[in-house]
Amino acid sequence: MNKMRAVVLDGPGPVSSLQIREIQKPRARDGWVLLKVMAFGLNRSELHTRLGLAGPDVTFPRVLGIEAAGFIEAAPETRFKEGAKAVAIMGGMGRSFDGGYAEFTLVPETNVISVETDLDWTRLGALPEVLQTAWGSLHVGVDLNAGDHLLVRGGTSSVGLMSAILAKRLGAIVIATTRQKERAQRLRECGVDHVLIDDGKVAAAVRAICPDGVDGAIELIGAPTLRDTLQSCRKGGTTCFTGMLSNQWIIDQFYPIEFIPTGVRLTAYGGGASDLPSAVLSEIADSIHRGEIHWPVKAYTMDEIAQAHDDMEHNRVIAKQVVLTGKT
Questions:
Q1: Are 220 and 152 in contact (CB under 8 A)?
Q2: Residue 55 lies in a domain
Q3: What is the CATH number of the domain that holds 81?
Q4: Are 295 and 126 in contact, with CB atoms under 8 Å apart?
Q5: DSSP state letters, 59-75
Q6: pTM for this prediction
Q7: Is 123 in the same domain as 137?
Q8: Interatomic CA distance for residues 68 and 125, integer angstroms
């Protein structure tokens, strides 16, 4: 079969711009992996592309999707074996070449991570990108340790929820924010110790819990709240700029000496497949499978892609969104 179903975007626009079409199935080639996609996660990166906010590396028409999970259909001249389970993330997917919003995707070998797990496709498909981002933010960005206090700014986002889960597994004390009181319980279900309702200024509330400030913070809202998040950190603590839920990532009139509190470290995280060890992916997937981690997921069919994007754009879902391709 040389055709496949895919979600194609001809150019920036509303959710109706996401068109499901039958297009040519990619052909395997040396150094690339052809993945039979069972499920793919939705990410703000794809929302930015659809809204026309992505960078110059995006070309159209384009099959979106910076991640996918499935079986390896072919992998000539690579280290991967046909039939194995694997995920693919980042590295130009859905931007400079076609991504995971399809029944098959062809990606460079460097985008692929093997995984050994019995976790269902719904939750596995919702895991790789969010785990890579949360894991890297905690271990590379913040360098979190057991007993540390961590602030997660934008806690009910999928990365925020996973960051809280991983931080608690590490033995940290977690403070997380949400703008909506009714979402506080979801944070507590993920193990968050202190939930703060975010009105744009939480530093005083953070210091009521930690008078000297937190040891680390993950900034997922973006530019509008970064300054307040920095003010929530202790001297010697680290704020890691990871997300842009606000769709704002440029700080006007940025004067570092005045903006960054004395002694507080500001870093950023934006990793890829090479930053998530296969063993970590398999371990977390198995922990979810065994019920040790509650990982909230909302699933859609490919025919529901417009609704899924609309839900993402309007922040209706307190879970990682995932689309099942329907292939068996």
A1: yes
A2: yes
A3: 3.90.180.10
A4: yes
A5: -SSEE--SEEEEEEEE-
A6: 0.92
A7: no
A8: 6
